[in-house]
């Protein structure tokens, strides 16, 4: 049964396991961002966890390269739409297992390696809205910290954000369900039926 939930992260292991593909979720709390360079650095350079200025264990990682504006008070997100998640498929399973990430947010879904890691660790993948970068930036209420800003630049750095009512849908869960692949399969079967009916 699909649920509509408002959740405050971090969550307990049991709460992560209870999420099912199709659940509509409004996230509150904190998330970190990470795209290609952060993933590559985490997996290949293996930084000590104490060298990362915030705790990734139990965190939600957002595949996002935000557009940031520097103000007198610090940094503010101007645009924060999701990046295509398959870009980091080769790294994601290791990041989940080694750093304790429990939620991934992105668009388009991910592959079998990530799905296996989700099952093993009790984690989930969330799809968020593409093409709504300004709206999603408005869900970011505060910039709390940043890592690798000087080295990677603002788009590829890892930001720690405080969020409120951030809209996501569980599309890959810890029970082996991948809605992205199921929809692809159903679409292909329907397409084959339509083509066959015209021959």
Poorly predicted sequence stretches spanning 5 or more consecutive residues? none
Q: What do we call the CATH topology?
A: fumarase
CATH superfamily descriptor:
Fe-S hydro-lyase, tartrate dehydratase beta-type, catalytic domain
Q: Termini, distance in Å?
A: 39 Å
Taking the sheet with the most strands, its summary is:
5 strands, mixed, barrel
**Mean pLDDT over the full residue set:** 92
Shape: globular
The assigned structural class equals alpha/beta
Kindly summarize this structure in a few lines.
With 199 residues, the protein is an alpha/beta fold.
Structure description:
- The chain has 199 residues and is α/β, with parallel strands linked by helices.
- It has one domain: Alpha-Beta Barrel (fumarase).
- The protein is built from 7 helices and 9 strands; from the N terminus they run βαβαβββαβαβαβαβα.
- It has helices spanning 13-18, 36-44, 89-99, 112-121, 133-138, 149-152, 179-197, and strands at residues 4-8, 24-33, 60-62, 67-71, 74-79, 103-106, 124-127, 140-147, 158-172.
- Helix 2 packs across helix 3 and helix 3 packs parallel to helix 4 (112-121).
- The longest helix is centred in the C-terminal third of the chain and has 19 residues, at 179-197.
- The N and C termini lie far apart (39 Å).
């Amino acid at each position: 049964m699909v649920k509509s939930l408002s959740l405050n992260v971090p969550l307990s292991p049991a709460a992560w396991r209870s999420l099912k593909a199709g659940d509509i979720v409004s996230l509150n709390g904190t998330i970190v961002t990470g795209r290609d360079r952060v993933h590559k650095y985490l997996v290949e350079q293996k930084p000590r966890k104490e060298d990362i200025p915030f705790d990734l264990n139990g965190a939600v990682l957002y595949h996002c390269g935000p557009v940031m504006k520097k103000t007198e008070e610090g940094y503010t997100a101007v645009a924060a739409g999701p990046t295509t998640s398959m870009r980091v498929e080769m790294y994601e399973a290791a990041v989940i297992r080694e750093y304790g990430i429990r939620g991934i947010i992105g668009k388009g879904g991910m592959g079998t390696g990530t799905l296996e890691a989700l099952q093993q660790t009790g984690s989930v993948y969330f799809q968020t809205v593409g093409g709504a970068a300004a709206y999603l930036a408005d869900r970011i209420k505060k910039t709390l910290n940043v890592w690798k800003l000087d080295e990677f630049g603002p788009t590829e750095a890892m930001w720690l954000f405080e969020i409120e009512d951030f809209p996501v849908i569980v599309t890959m869960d810890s029970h082996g369900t991948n809605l992205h692949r199921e929809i692809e399969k159903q679409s292909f079967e329907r397409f084959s039926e339509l083509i066959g009916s015209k021959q």
